[in-house]
Design brief:
single chain, 2 domains, two-stranded parallel sheet, 5 helices, 12% strand
Length: 133
Amino acid sequence: MQAFFVEKTLGIFRELWFNKRKDFIGKLVYKLFHHQKNNVLISESLRISNMVENKHLSKSISDASWGTFFDWAGNIAERDGFHFHQVDPKNTSQICSCCGQKSPKKLSLAIRTFDCQFCGTSLDRDHNAALNI
């Protein structure tokens, strides 16, 4: 009897968590397109199934529901006449956003600053990648 009660309670909490996540993603996608007056939303084309195989990242990636976010962004963009594009992330953090030159040495993930050897630009690595996208 007690096991049934625990399973039922867990089921209720899972459903509540699922609904909260779904509500948050829906509101976020709507806000990105409608409240900010954006016509275009661009993101990296992430291989989520490959990322989930990493034992250190799998739980946080699954909890974040990235796949659901990208699916909904595409559906809402199509429905409401906006544009949603996914860009290949290859070398976005390795290429200078100012001069377009690729860094001669491959930067490890531990290096958080992109310093261009050609034009002298110094940017946060993620900011540089966002500008390239």
